[in-house]
Every structure is written in structure tokens, then in C-alpha cells.
Amino acid sequence: MGPELPQESVRAGGGLWHLRHPRPQAPRPPPPPSWQGWTTTNLAIRESGGTSSRPGSMLWTVELEGGPQRVNHAAVAVGDRIYSFGGYCTGENYRTIRNMDVHVLNTVTYRWKAIDIKQEREFVPFQRYGHTAVAFGHLVYVWGGRNDVSACNILYCFDTNTHEWSVPKVHGHIPEARDGHSACIINDHMYIFSGYLEYVESYTQDVHTLNLRTMTWSYIKATGPAPVYRDFHTATGVDGIMYVWGGREVASGWYDSPEHEEYGADLYALDTVTNRWSIIPCSVVYRGQIYVFGGFNSRKCLHFNDLHRFDPVLHVWEEVKPLGQGPCPRRRQSCCVVGSKMFLFGGTSPKENYDEILEEDPNGEEQTDRRLKDHNDLHVLDFEPSLKTLCLLEVQKLKLDTTWLPRELHMLLNFMQMPNNITRPLNHTG
Q: Where are the residues of the annotated region Disordered (predicted)?
């Protein structure tokens, strides 16, 4: 069993992704702080290997505004594109039924584009938040989530080749409508865990799986120490194991007040062969594969922008400190890995005058939106920055004359500096 985890690191609303790479020999770093109550619905997987980054060699390379301004959205990587589906934005109407928006990011040019959907309403999901999206080949399956009126349990499929939606015919034990659940792909199956059930106003510990070959839903009768009732946690699949971590825990399953929220430090693992849960203790780490960014400490109203990783083989954690200027502290953003880069976008953070607003209305739940700032920025973390990337960053930093540069490098510099135009600039740092 690892060391006791400090309570000041309790948090919610961070980001998780899975990166595969070999482990070089290096000294062990000191024990990291814990991260309790971290929640999100996103993940990304890097399937190929490559040269592993040495501690400290990771580098934040790009920061651009003007992308989709979203919180609690769902995103997946398909090839060299990242697709972002729906999400919440302060000030928008979530009571009126309208089509879910879809944005696609070109990870080479860092350009966002809104996809124009021209289909009958019956085939397109309504705009929502708290849903999940998983990629299966060139298809993306979106499930769950809610608007300000109701939740949904209809499965939608988005074809990234045709940019068209469909509603696959499914069979079996269909899960109840919910939001704040998690989803991941393991061996041609989409696994759904937990979330908030709208119709009974309670949380669940249920595990459901959808066979994406036969489109059949099944209820998993899992054994072992299951995670506490929760929502807005995260899950990712690695070698037949579904790892679940973070979220807002409610021991009774019934939410009645913030005072009854809990934020545990345990990492849970479901063996999808035996359908048995186990709890993985935390300890000092050497080299990791599953990455966690940011989050929120609801007990102390603290947002974070630190980075940690977990090794699913050694069952150990470590804190990672990349070089460069990273995102500001935030929660409920999306993170996807494409090649050797991690793309982080969206999320929410407290406004600069958060303390003043809190003093004016310390208990007003309806005032939460005006205390927070929803982000439209894109940040890129390069796990293996090339010499070309490092040189371009120095040219940018030193404001060197670029007239002599080849056209290709001119274009790359422009891509790294030119804001997107999906939304207006917010004029904030990180």
C-alpha cells in the first residue's frame, strides 16, 4: 500500500488519456501529490510506440484561441483529426431542441472547422452535455447526456467519412438515460459505467456493454469492490482492463447537498474477462502510461493545471512537469492524443474576480455560471518535440526575421500562431 494521499489535492474535472511507449531507465522522482475527485468523460489512446520522452523533455508548444467554447463536451481522435461533439457554453439555450454541433480539428494545421449537418432531425442527436463519444474505426458512437429538460439513452453514430449521423438498431438490455457517465472501448465493445439517472434522480454503479459487431447491449454482473456511486469521472481501457477514477462520489447514491459529496483517491480496475472489480493502491512511480491533467478541489474551491501519469503495469503514479507554458488551471476539458502530441481544449475556470463574486453570493448555486469562464483555447503538449519544432519555437520567441525561411516553415509558423475563428478571442492566458 502506498503512502497516505494529502487532502489538499482532492479534485474534480480533469482530463485523462492513455499513451503507449517503452520505458527508459531513469532515477525515480519523489512521491507526487494525490488527485481525488478528478472527473471527466474523455480519453485518448496512442497505439504506436516510439522514443519515450525523458522526464522534463515534454513541451507545451502551441496555444491558440478561437476554437469551440465548450465544457462537458465529448471528443475523440480519428486518424489525424479530432472530432468534438456538443457540450455546454454559458449563455446558450439548452431547453430548446436543436442539433448537436460537431467541430473537427486538423491536428497538422491546428485549424478548427464547424461541420454543417444537413439531415432530418430524427437522425441527429440534440445539443447536450455530459455525454460520451468513442471511436470505432471511422465511426464515432455518441451516447447519453442531457440538455436542461431531459436525458437520453439513444445511440447515435457519426460517420467521419460522410459527416452523416445515423441511429443504429440495437438489441438487448438498453441502459437507462443518464449523464456524467464514462465510456471506453475494449475488444470491440463499448463499456458504460455509472452516471446520474434522470428518471429516478439518483446515481448508479452499473456497468453496461455494447457489442459493436452485433449492436447488442448487455448488463454486466460485476463482482468485487465496485466504485462508489459517482458522476463526471473518467474511464479508459488498457489490455482488457477498464480503469475508473475520480468523479463526484455520493455514498448513498442519492444526491441532496454539496456537503455529502466525497472525492476518493482510489483507482478502480474492472477485469472485463472475469468481470471483477479491484482497487489499485497508489505509490511512488517511475514511468507512466495513463495521463491525468488538471481538475478541481470542490472542498477548497481550487482548480489545478498539473500533470500526472499512471503505469498500468507497475500500478504506480508520478507527477510530470513539462517545459513551456501550459494551460491555466481548469476542469472538464477534453484531451486527445494524435501521434506524439496531446491536444487539450475547452473546459472552465474561475474568473479573475471569482472571490468578489463568491462574497456577493456564497451559496447561490444559480450564480455558478457567472463565476466561471468557459474556454475556447487549444493547447498542444508534444511528448517528443523534434529539432524543427524547437527551432520554430525559438524563431517565434526571439522574433527573428523569417523572410529567408522556406515556404513550408512559414506555413508551420503561421499555423502555430494564428488564432482560430470559430469563436471570438477571450483575451485570457492559458
A: 1-36
